[in-house]
Design brief:
2 domains, 7-stranded mixed sheet, about 400 residues, 17 helices, globular, two-stranded antiparallel sheet, Spore Coat Polysaccharide Biosynthesis Protein SpsA, Chain A, alpha/beta
Length: about 400
């Protein structure tokens, strides 16, 4: 008997809001412009309850209350507000932050969402076109086996040089990471942005929901989905997150821009392309490792950073078949471990960020160097113009788009 194909019919939108009053008019406009699908929006207006007693934070709390009042007055589509902002309702103790807000708002929509529902996560400062919701619905209906979607993104420039320079430098970091993972066909080739994720309701339940973290919850969430099943990474419509300085999360776009604008990009290097080749060589060794220990390029990282002399033996003992072992290896050397390895090994390359960027193009994308003739010895991010940084960003976007589309056609 043929299994009935799953058909998704409704969108449930999850949006955490913290001090987003000035962005609500544009956000509501983008939502009400959506066409071609049935949807309901869930807002979680939130902050720690103790902020009400902090003179430096009280104004933010009052703006959050104004946000609730604004939504009640002007949201002219199906919606629900989870109030974690009014005095007495805010976060208590250590349970706070955007991770908790995403979890609470997504858990709340489960009270109404059926198995034919899809969840889209957004942020209050995210822009998107009128076909965005319907494009996600169509994407999942074309790929009903998919358990998640990492939506392509693009930061729009503000016209303010300091912000634009910071976001372009940060996006170059992110796209270099993604392009190299795509180049080696790694299963963790996705970019995690809380404003650019979607998944079926049944998948959210199956993985046990969102693991609340103060920051980085989007990365761990997508990684968990990737280990569970097929994660899509292409969509006809992109999202356009805001480029702004923000310290409301502990790491991510806003804090990276703040650190970068102060000249500190140490946490966001342009990783050398050969490090990804070493990850690839490690993955290629998985079949041989089922039979016996063989040296792999990441061994030193496992020993020095993870303090594990042999990570393979426990996996062999628990795997009855080569297929089970390969899966266990892939889940052990996951996106988090790869990122940790890159950070661990980057300094040993002895290359500047600019040299790493040009090395990638020289080795794998020589056509880019022909188009970007300013990328030559002496190029520096600090002295490059906003236009030059934008041209680099867009060139890397084109490379990533091509990888994503090719992979999408195979699914």
């Amino acid at each position: 008997m043929l299994k009935k194909k799953r058909i998704y019919k409704k969108i449930y939108v999850a949006i955490p809001l913290l001090d987003e009053l000035e962005n609500l008019p544009a956000l509501l406009h983008s939502i009400r412009e959506q066409n071609g699908c049935d949807y309901k929006v869930f807002f979680c207006v939130n902050q720690p309850d103790k902020w009400w007693d902090d003179p430096d934070k009280r104004g933010l709390c009052e703006r959050n209350i104004a946000s609730i009042e604004y939504l009640l007055q002007y949201a002219d589509f199906p919606f629900r507000i989870i109030d974690k902002a009014s005095k007495g309702n805010g976060w208590q103790g250590k349970d706070l932050g955007v991770g908790w807000a995403r979890k609470v708002v997504m858990d709340a929509l489960l009270e109404e969402a059926g198995e034919d529902g899809l969840i889209i996560t957004l942020d209050g400062d995210t822009d998107f076109n009128k076909n965005y919701f319907s494009s996600v619905l169509e994407n999942f209906n074309e790929h009903p086996e998919a358990v998640g979607l990492s939506v392509p993104y693009y930061h729009k420039l503000t016209g303010r040089e300091e912000e634009d320079r910071a976001i372009l430098r940060y996006e170059i970091y992110m796209r270099n990471y993604a392009v190299n993972l795509w180049r080696i066909s790694n299963p963790y080739s996705f970019t995690a942005l809380g404003s650019a994720m979607a998944l079926p309701v049944h998948a959210y339940k199956a993985i046990g929901g969102m693991s609340p973290k103060k920051s980085g919850e989007d990365f761990y969430f997508l990684q968990k989905l990737r280990k569970y099943g097929l994660l899509l990474t292409w969509n006809e419509e992109k999202v356009y997150p805001a480029a702004r300085f923000s310290d409301r999360v502990f790491f991510g776009t806003g804090p990276a821009m703040i650190k970068g604008a102060a000249g500190d990009w140490e946490s966001y290097p342009v990783y050398h392309h050969t490090l990804f080749d070493k990850v690839h060589e490690t993955y290629k060794a998985f079949p041989a490792l089922f039979l016996e220990d063989v040296p792999v390029p990441m061994d030193r990282f496992f020993t020095d950073a993870l303090k594990q002399d042999n990570i393979w033996d426990p996996l062999r003992k628990n795997a009855k078949t080569p297929e089970q072992f390969l899966r266990a290896c892939s889940e052990k050397v996951d996106g988090l471990r790869i990122l940790q390895y890159l950070k661990h090994a980057q300094k040993e390359t002895g290359c500047t960020n600019e040299e790493c960027l040009m090395g990638l193009f020289q080795e794998h994308h020589t056509d880019v160097l022909r188009d970007l003739d300013f990328l030559r010895p002496g190029f520096h991010f600090e002295s490059a113009s906003v236009l030059e940084l934008d041209l680099v960003r867009n060139a890397m976007l084109s490379i990533e788009d091509k990888y994503q589309k090719e992979n999408h056609l195979k699914t």
